[in-house]
Protein backbone atom coordinates (compact mmCIF):
# COMPACT_ATOMS: atom_id res chain seq x y z
CA UNK A 1 0.00 0.00 0.00
CA UNK A 2 1.45 3.40 -0.91
CA UNK A 3 1.42 6.40 1.41
CA UNK A 4 -1.31 8.90 0.54
CA UNK A 5 0.16 11.90 -1.20
CA UNK A 6 -0.47 14.43 1.51
CA UNK A 7 1.80 17.40 1.89
CA UNK A 8 1.24 19.96 4.56
CA UNK A 9 3.66 22.69 5.43
CA UNK A 10 3.33 24.33 8.80
CA UNK A 11 5.84 27.03 9.74
CA UNK A 12 6.63 26.99 13.43
CA UNK A 13 9.46 29.45 13.75
CA UNK A 14 11.09 29.54 17.14
CA UNK A 15 9.17 26.48 18.41
CA UNK A 16 11.04 23.23 19.02
CA UNK A 17 9.32 19.92 19.74
CA UNK A 18 10.91 17.63 22.31
CA UNK A 19 11.68 15.01 19.68
CA UNK A 20 13.27 17.50 17.31
CA UNK A 21 15.14 19.12 20.20
CA UNK A 22 16.98 15.81 20.53
CA UNK A 23 17.70 15.82 16.79
CA UNK A 24 18.99 19.38 16.99
CA UNK A 25 21.26 18.38 19.86
CA UNK A 26 22.48 15.43 17.84
CA UNK A 27 23.07 17.73 14.88
CA UNK A 28 24.99 20.15 17.02
CA UNK A 29 27.35 17.38 18.02
CA UNK A 30 27.57 16.23 14.38
CA UNK A 31 26.23 12.75 15.25
CA UNK A 32 24.38 11.04 12.45
CA UNK A 33 22.59 14.01 10.87
CA UNK A 34 23.40 15.69 7.56
CA UNK A 35 24.26 19.34 8.06
CA UNK A 36 23.76 21.91 5.33
CA UNK A 37 25.43 25.30 5.64
CA UNK A 38 23.32 28.14 4.27
CA UNK A 39 23.33 31.94 4.39
CA UNK A 40 26.36 34.05 4.99
CA UNK A 41 29.32 33.42 7.23
CA UNK A 42 30.29 36.57 9.02
CA UNK A 43 33.00 37.56 11.44
CA UNK A 44 33.95 40.55 13.49
CA UNK A 45 36.83 41.54 15.68
CA UNK A 46 35.90 42.30 19.23
CA UNK A 47 37.97 43.87 21.88
CA UNK A 48 39.82 40.65 22.60
CA UNK A 49 38.68 37.93 20.16
CA UNK A 50 37.37 37.28 16.67
CA UNK A 51 33.85 35.77 16.52
CA UNK A 52 32.87 33.58 13.56
CA UNK A 53 29.14 33.29 12.93
CA UNK A 54 27.39 30.82 10.67
CA UNK A 55 23.90 29.39 10.20
CA UNK A 56 23.59 25.63 9.81
CA UNK A 57 20.47 23.84 8.62
CA UNK A 58 19.82 20.50 10.33
CA UNK A 59 17.36 18.09 8.78
CA UNK A 60 15.75 14.94 10.17
CA UNK A 61 12.85 12.60 9.40
CA UNK A 62 10.25 11.65 12.01
CA UNK A 63 8.13 8.49 11.64
CA UNK A 64 4.46 8.97 12.46
CA UNK A 65 2.93 5.81 14.01
CA UNK A 66 -0.39 4.35 12.93
CA UNK A 67 -3.25 3.32 15.22
CA UNK A 68 -5.64 0.35 15.03
CA UNK A 69 -9.26 0.52 13.93
CA UNK A 70 -11.50 -2.31 15.15
CA UNK A 71 -14.60 -3.59 13.36
CA UNK A 72 -17.00 -5.49 15.62
CA UNK A 73 -18.28 -8.75 14.15
CA UNK A 74 -21.44 -10.08 15.87
CA UNK A 75 -21.09 -13.48 14.17
CA UNK A 76 -17.97 -14.34 16.21
CA UNK A 77 -17.50 -14.49 19.97
CA UNK A 78 -15.38 -12.09 21.98
CA UNK A 79 -11.73 -13.10 21.74
CA UNK A 80 -11.84 -13.72 17.98
CA UNK A 81 -9.68 -11.37 15.88
CA UNK A 82 -8.79 -11.26 12.21
CA UNK A 83 -6.45 -8.83 10.47
CA UNK A 84 -8.23 -6.99 7.64
CA UNK A 85 -5.40 -4.72 6.52
CA UNK A 86 -1.94 -3.76 7.71
CA UNK A 87 -1.19 -0.26 8.97
CA UNK A 88 1.16 2.15 7.23
CA UNK A 89 3.38 4.65 9.05
CA UNK A 90 3.45 8.28 8.04
CA UNK A 91 6.44 10.58 7.74
CA UNK A 92 7.38 14.12 8.62
CA UNK A 93 10.49 16.01 7.50
CA UNK A 94 11.87 18.56 9.94
CA UNK A 95 14.42 21.28 9.37
CA UNK A 96 15.93 23.81 11.77
CA UNK A 97 18.28 26.71 11.18
CA UNK A 98 20.70 27.19 14.06
CA UNK A 99 23.07 30.09 14.65
CA UNK A 100 26.59 29.06 15.63
CA UNK A 101 29.29 31.27 17.07
CA UNK A 102 32.81 29.89 16.97
CA UNK A 103 31.35 26.41 16.41
CA UNK A 104 28.95 26.60 19.36
CA UNK A 105 25.16 26.69 18.91
CA UNK A 106 23.70 29.79 20.48
CA UNK A 107 20.18 30.18 19.03
CA UNK A 108 17.54 28.46 16.95
CA UNK A 109 16.74 30.85 14.13
CA UNK A 110 13.77 28.94 12.70
CA UNK A 111 12.20 25.51 12.65
CA UNK A 112 9.63 24.01 10.29
CA UNK A 113 8.10 20.64 9.48
CA UNK A 114 6.51 19.20 6.35
CA UNK A 115 4.32 16.10 6.52
CA UNK A 116 5.21 13.90 3.55
CA UNK A 117 3.07 10.87 4.37
CA UNK A 118 -0.08 10.35 6.43
CA UNK A 119 -0.39 7.27 8.70
CA UNK A 120 -3.00 4.70 7.70
CA UNK A 121 -4.56 2.69 10.54
CA UNK A 122 -4.34 -1.07 10.82
CA UNK A 123 -7.83 -2.59 10.53
CA UNK A 124 -8.78 -5.57 12.71
CA UNK A 125 -12.08 -7.42 12.81
CA UNK A 126 -13.01 -8.69 16.27
CA UNK A 127 -15.82 -10.81 17.63
CA UNK A 128 -18.51 -9.06 19.67
CA UNK A 129 -20.87 -11.97 20.35
CA UNK A 130 -21.14 -12.97 24.02
CA UNK A 131 -22.15 -16.04 26.01
CA UNK A 132 -25.29 -15.72 28.11
CA UNK A 133 -25.50 -18.53 30.63
CA UNK A 134 -27.47 -18.32 33.90
CA UNK A 135 -25.59 -16.76 36.80
CA UNK A 136 -25.72 -17.80 40.43
CA UNK A 137 -29.11 -16.08 40.84
CA UNK A 138 -30.57 -17.90 37.87
CA UNK A 139 -30.63 -14.75 35.74
CA UNK A 140 -29.23 -14.62 32.20
CA UNK A 141 -26.08 -12.54 32.19
CA UNK A 142 -23.45 -11.67 29.61
CA UNK A 143 -20.77 -11.90 32.29
CA UNK A 144 -21.96 -15.10 33.88
CA UNK A 145 -18.85 -17.20 34.54
CA UNK A 146 -17.09 -17.22 37.90
CA UNK A 147 -13.53 -18.26 38.67
CA UNK A 148 -13.54 -22.06 39.13
CA UNK A 149 -10.97 -21.97 41.95
CA UNK A 150 -10.89 -19.41 44.74
CA UNK A 151 -7.20 -19.74 45.52
CA UNK A 152 -4.02 -20.08 43.48
CA UNK A 153 -2.78 -18.16 40.46
CA UNK A 154 -2.73 -18.35 36.66
CA UNK A 155 0.27 -20.49 35.75
CA UNK A 156 -0.43 -20.69 31.99
CA UNK A 157 -2.72 -18.37 29.98
CA UNK A 158 -4.85 -19.24 27.00
CA UNK A 159 -2.58 -20.05 24.03
CA UNK A 160 0.39 -19.76 26.37
CA UNK A 161 2.02 -22.37 24.13
CA UNK A 162 0.86 -23.98 20.85
CA UNK A 163 -2.18 -26.17 21.42
CA UNK A 164 -3.00 -24.87 24.91
CA UNK A 165 -6.77 -24.47 24.71
CA UNK A 166 -7.56 -23.20 28.18
CA UNK A 167 -6.22 -21.47 31.28
CA UNK A 168 -4.22 -23.23 33.99
CA UNK A 169 -4.83 -22.28 37.62
CA UNK A 170 -2.03 -23.51 39.86
CA UNK A 171 -3.54 -24.40 43.23
CA UNK A 172 -2.93 -26.57 46.27
CA UNK A 173 -3.62 -30.27 45.73
CA UNK A 174 -7.17 -31.07 46.86
CA UNK A 175 -8.47 -27.46 46.61
CA UNK A 176 -12.19 -27.30 45.72
CA UNK A 177 -13.17 -26.74 42.07
CA UNK A 178 -16.48 -24.94 41.52
CA UNK A 179 -18.89 -24.91 38.58
CA UNK A 180 -18.13 -21.71 36.68
CA UNK A 181 -21.76 -21.57 35.52
CA UNK A 182 -24.85 -23.64 36.18
CA UNK A 183 -25.50 -26.55 33.84
CA UNK A 184 -25.69 -30.31 33.29
CA UNK A 185 -22.81 -32.76 33.71
CA UNK A 186 -22.20 -34.30 30.28
CA UNK A 187 -18.93 -35.99 31.25
CA UNK A 188 -17.35 -37.11 34.50
CA UNK A 189 -14.47 -39.55 34.32
CA UNK A 190 -11.04 -40.21 32.85
CA UNK A 191 -10.44 -38.27 29.63
CA UNK A 192 -7.00 -39.08 28.18
CA UNK A 193 -4.45 -36.27 28.65
CA UNK A 194 -7.06 -34.33 30.64
CA UNK A 195 -6.96 -37.00 33.35
CA UNK A 196 -9.95 -36.96 35.67
CA UNK A 197 -12.25 -34.53 33.93
CA UNK A 198 -15.66 -32.87 34.34
CA UNK A 199 -17.53 -31.24 31.44
CA UNK A 200 -20.65 -29.13 32.00
CA UNK A 201 -23.10 -28.05 29.31
CA UNK A 202 -24.88 -24.77 29.93
CA UNK A 203 -28.25 -23.37 28.88
CA UNK A 204 -26.92 -21.56 25.78
CA UNK A 205 -25.15 -24.73 24.58
CA UNK A 206 -21.68 -23.69 25.66
CA UNK A 207 -19.52 -26.01 27.77
CA UNK A 208 -16.92 -25.64 30.48
CA UNK A 209 -14.21 -28.25 31.01
CA UNK A 210 -12.31 -28.92 34.27
CA UNK A 211 -9.25 -31.18 33.92
CA UNK A 212 -6.44 -32.90 35.91
CA UNK A 213 -8.65 -33.34 39.00
CA UNK A 214 -7.77 -35.63 41.89
CA UNK A 215 -11.40 -36.35 42.87
CA UNK A 216 -14.64 -36.05 40.88
CA UNK A 217 -17.72 -35.12 42.93
CA UNK A 218 -20.47 -35.11 40.27
CA UNK A 219 -21.93 -37.73 37.92
CA UNK A 220 -23.19 -37.83 34.34
CA UNK A 221 -26.61 -36.22 33.91
CA UNK A 222 -26.49 -34.35 37.21
CA UNK A 223 -27.69 -30.73 37.25
CA UNK A 224 -25.39 -28.33 39.12
CA UNK A 225 -25.66 -24.69 40.08
CA UNK A 226 -23.06 -22.01 39.57
CA UNK A 227 -20.53 -22.18 42.40
CA UNK A 228 -21.30 -25.81 43.32
CA UNK A 229 -18.33 -27.96 44.38
CA UNK A 230 -17.78 -30.41 41.48
CA UNK A 231 -14.21 -31.74 41.91
CA UNK A 232 -10.85 -31.31 43.63
CA UNK A 233 -7.61 -29.96 42.13
CA UNK A 234 -5.09 -32.64 41.22
CA UNK A 235 -2.40 -33.57 38.72
CA UNK A 236 -3.84 -36.47 36.73
CA UNK A 237 -3.34 -37.07 33.01
CA UNK A 238 -0.70 -35.04 31.15
CA UNK A 239 0.23 -32.80 34.05
CA UNK A 240 3.49 -31.84 35.75
CA UNK A 241 2.06 -30.27 38.88
CA UNK A 242 -1.06 -29.60 40.90
CA UNK A 243 -3.38 -27.34 38.88
CA UNK A 244 -6.79 -26.98 37.22
CA UNK A 245 -6.97 -26.75 33.43
CA UNK A 246 -10.13 -24.80 32.58
CA UNK A 247 -11.77 -24.34 29.16
CA UNK A 248 -14.80 -22.57 27.72
CA UNK A 249 -16.21 -23.65 24.35
CA UNK A 250 -19.26 -22.49 22.43
CA UNK A 251 -22.08 -24.73 21.23
CA UNK A 252 -20.24 -24.79 17.89
CA UNK A 253 -17.09 -26.00 19.71
CA UNK A 254 -15.29 -22.67 19.20
CA UNK A 255 -12.58 -22.41 21.85
CA UNK A 256 -12.66 -19.13 23.79
CA UNK A 257 -10.22 -17.41 26.11
CA UNK A 258 -11.76 -17.96 29.57
CA UNK A 259 -10.14 -14.81 30.97
CA UNK A 260 -12.44 -12.71 28.75
CA UNK A 261 -15.51 -14.22 30.39
CA UNK A 262 -14.73 -15.02 34.00
CA UNK A 263 -14.71 -12.59 36.89
CA UNK A 264 -11.07 -12.04 37.83
List the helices and strands and how they pair.
Blueprint lengths: L7 E4 L6 H11 L6 E11 L4 E15 L3 E10 L3 E5 L4 E12 L2 E14 L4 E8 L23 E4 L10 E4 L5 E3 L4 E8 L5 E6 L5 E10 L6 E2 L4 E5 L9 E7 L5 E2 L1 H4 L3
Parallel strand pairs: 4-8
Antiparallel strand pairs: 1-7, 2-3, 3-6, 5-8, 6-7, 9-10, 10-17, 11-16, 12-13, 12-15, 13-14, 14-16, 14-17, 17-18
Would you kindly provide a written description of the structure presented here, covering whatever features stand out?
Residues 1-16 and 28-47 have low confidence and may be disordered. Helix content is 6%, strand content 49%. The protein starts with 7 loop residues before the first strand and ends with a helix. The strands form three sheets. Strands 9, 10, 11, 12, 13, 14, 15, 16, 17 and 18 form a ten-stranded antiparallel β-sheet that branches. The chain has helices spanning 18-28, 258-261, and strands spanning 8-11, 35-45, 50-64, 68-77, 81-85, 90-101, 104-117, 122-129, 153-156, 167-170, 176-178, 183-190, 196-201, 207-216, 223-224, 229-233, 243-249, 255-256. With 264 residues, the protein is mostly beta strands.
What oligomeric state best describes the polypeptide chains here? single chain
Termini separation comes to 41 Å
Mean pLDDT across all amino acids: 82
Number of DSSP-assigned strands: 18
Overall structural class, as computed from helix and strand content, comes to: mainly beta
Low-confidence stretches: 1-16, 28-47
How many helices? The count is 2
Task: Please give the share of residues in helix.
Answer: under 10%
- State the major sheet: 10 strands, antiparallel
Radius of gyration: 32 Å
